[in-house]
UniProtKB/TrEMBL annotation:
Keywords, alphabetical: Membrane, Transmembrane, Transmembrane helix
Transmembrane stretches, start-end: 18-39, 139-161, 168-186, 192-210, 217-234, 240-255, 267-287, 334-354, 361-381, 393-409, 421-445, 465-490
The keyword Secreted belongs to this UniProt entry's keyword annotation: no
One protein family per Pfam: DUF2142
Signal peptide: none
Full protein name: DUF2142 domain-containing protein
Domain of life per record: Bacteria
Amino acid sequence: MTEQPAAGDGAVAGTRRVWILAFVGFLLTIGAWSVAAPYDGTPDEREHMIRAAGVAAGEIAPPPADAKKGSGAFQDVPAGLVREQCWQFKPAVSAACAVPPGSDDTPVRAGTGAGRYHPVYYALVGWPLDLWPGWSGVLLARFISAGIAAALLASAFVVAVTWSRRRLMIAGLLVAVTPMAAQMASAVNPNGVEIAAGVAFFAATIPLFLDRRPKPHHGLLILAGISGLLLAMLRQTGPLWLAAAFVAFAFPWRQSNVGRLVREKAVWWWVGGIAVAAVTAVGWGVVMKTSDLGKYGGHVYTYGQAALAETDRWRGYLDQMVGVTSWLDTRMPAPIYLTWQFVAATLLIGAFVFGRLVDRWRLLVLIVAGTVVPSVMQVALVKQTGFVTQGRYMLPMLAGVMLFAAYVWEERGLDATRSRTLVRISVILLLPIHLFVLILTMVRWQDGLPKYLTFRTFNPFAGDWHPPLGSITPLLASVLGLTLLGVLAWRVSMRPLDEADETASAISEPAPDPR
């Protein structure tokens, strides 16, 4: 007798299929940037590659030294990775003037501003750089980083499909994964994986803490645990993001799932692991002096002047979150930024309008942690470091803002039909922007940008420099990846919860707060 499949087997298979498709879509979209970029094509990639190659060679904790403007450390790395650049911050100059990475594996002593950073990320991506320091090692290291990010984002997508009541969290996910996030995830740089971990962490913790439907949540717990561990270790801001998420979603206790969660043994194992990782990371930072960013000098601001200047810089931060690409030297036309920011503002305003008082409190905590706290830290350190903050540093936290805003709006005010419409508008408006930003950045790398853009400028096949796998490869990968993600988001938005699910969740939830 043939055994009949369990009732849940079809759902599990469907979830696995969605994850695979989303993973392939994100990997192609991010990987397109990996194969399009020249060596050291994104901010500080050379610094991180030297750190990664050094960790892979066993030099995990080099003595802090004045390696770069008073900070960093020195690492022994293959000579083929030590290259000087000639085109950064010069958008009219192509990457053809630079010497590409080579296969020379002779050990040389190289300074890096990332030499004091936590070694976990670098151990994961660094071994190809140590074994094959030419283009093969560089691309493989980039693909490993891109693969980690794609797996996290695919998991967040599955959560949005499974736990978002009307799939509106898919729109929040599409807003959170900006072209800048894709570019950073494609490079050897922990910031890219940190952004993806932030997306995955908030996608998991929002329903884990707040959803009252009687559904198995083991997958949420695992995703929150893995992404939480990554956030704790990847960069110094990770513990801040974790603390802000706990404050936002755990309080008030009576309107969260904390009471249920604390009774589960698995929760305590994950919390303990994240706590140990965070304490270890903080200890590493104290010993290695990772908070010492160096002395850039020449800044004579009073704190009042610095505060006003920082406020003015937020216009630029918002654009950087969307995509001021290459080495922050390639700006997009203004409608690109305005379109993306319009969709983000729509989600945020809708959440504040339809949300209850407790929802607004939670949004406020996330926004303050993601914007006000970094700005205060920047002002406090401006005399030593200058203005070093970039929009991409806030993306892990602000991804949580977008996901929670979508969650609130669909929970409190938006019906299934309008949620589906908003998801589809996000697909139509946002995904083509990814391709546009990639094309313009490829033109910048390959041929340089003229002072004034024209339609003839947008030729990603011209120029005196071309990617090692050719210019057609990243374009095809990006088109395939974005198409796959768009079709997937479009199709899953057609299936809101059925009437029985809505009734069950209404029974399991407390009565609405009249406020």
